[in-house]
Amino acid sequence: MKSFMLILVLMLTLFAAGCAEQEEEKTPQGAEPVIIGYPPWDDARANTFVLKQVLESEGYEVEAINADLGAVFQGVAQGDIDFYASAWLPTTQGLYWERYGNDLDYVKNISTGARIGLVVPTYVTIDSIDELNENKDKFNGDIQGIEPGAGIMATTETVVEEYNLDYKLRASSTVGMATELQDSIDNEEWMVVTLWQPHWAFARMDLKFLEDPENVYGDGDNLVIVARKDLSEDRPEVYEILSRYEMELSDIESIMLDLDQGMTSEEAAAKWIENNPEKVNEWLGE
């Protein structure tokens, strides 16, 4: 009887060990989920959910947490968030890098040539920011902005000061700004908004950036993955995937356009992944 019980205990032990090994295979490097933070903008959603699904395909549990931009940077710096996949640096979100950069890992540039600025419909007959004051009445003295915490809003406040613009910068949501812009175009009204590229609006509307002779908006940004300091040490395989990740601005815009047309973040990311298996394999080192 004792021998039987000993054999049974050994069998149960081996079975439990086998289950644990299988579970470990399903959740590489432990059961803790990978946490991605992202602000409420479509370029960030595009990169976040593509990476989420790529990591999930490798067996990781992944959580995507939406928060305002400051909270995302702070969360990564404090180690509560593993990474943010769409930081606009060095200009647009540079204030956050100055504040938190010592506690962040600048993993890599994933895209180059991103830009921000003041944008108008192409039928508007001015071409430069320094022409805004003489056409104030046509724009009702308003610059339509987005969420108050956005980097582009802080930079545009500096633009208003540098150009001595007699305009009010109005905060809104990104969706609200795009809706107002579309309404103005439908009625062929003059409107100036804060906008950036990549953005789906450039695929749907005829728009142009106003020239910035004082170069307040800078020469353009990179889209950057920033991670918590110790990610490369305790999640090296995740870090390796991030270090190989790249996305053309045109690819990001295509996902953003699908989002605007009603796809969920998961659906738009899955569509892009299905259509670009070679790129995904490169990120996975295959």
TrEMBL record:
MF annotations from Gene Ontology: amine transmembrane transporter activity; carnitine transmembrane transporter activity
Residue ranges annotated for the ABC-type glycine betaine transport system substrate-binding domain, each copy included: 33-275
Assigned keywords, A-Z: Cell membrane, Membrane, Transport
GO biological process: choline transport; glycine betaine transport
A single cellular component GO annotation: ATP-binding cassette (ABC) transporter complex
Any matching Pfam family: OpuAC
Localization (cell): Cell membrane
Protein name (database record): Glycine betaine/proline transport system substrate-binding protein
